Amino acid sequence: MDASPPLDSRPPLHPVPRDVDQSRRRNQVRQTVIREVDRRIAAVAHLSIGFGVVVGVGFLLGIAINVGIWLRSKRSPFVELHAEQAGAYQLTVLLINIAAVLVWLVGAGYLVIGGSTVTLGTVPLNQVMAGLGCLVVPAFIVWFFGTIFYGLYGGLLIAAGRDFSYPVFGPWARRRLEARNRA
Predict the structure, then answer these.
(1) Which of 91, 139, 142, 161 has the highest CB neighbour count under 10 A?
(2) Residues 118-170: pLDDT tens digits?
């Protein structure tokens, strides 16, 4: 039987003053909490696109949340990067949605007002437009919800501690932040 004291009762080889050790632990805990808060705020920036499901003001509310996060994110480069790329993504999605709806309304207006004598071969143009409308509406619905789900997916990845970057907007935001930090 070994008469040595248990491992946890032995003095450390290089004793660290108790106050320094506690201060170091507090700083580590503080940094962990800050990183956790930054990650959650960055996730909210991505998740705010979920308000887009509420047609009308939903995307505007999501962008407003992003702008608020981005304005307050100057303390954390991580939050700033994610708020900037999520905001750019959401603004682009909003503008594309508006353009698509306007094009659809013009096409629908042409069909309603219609009466055109223009034909494509033997098929009147208003029938061609109606056929395209039947294809475009389901494609727009897939686009609409797909863009929202992609942003939600990014937010969930960030919340889980994984990396996420939008294909075009992520590299753009990184370059922008690096250029600003160099200046």
Answers:
(1) 91
(2) 666 777 777 777 788 788 888 889 998 999 999 999 999 999 989 899 999 98
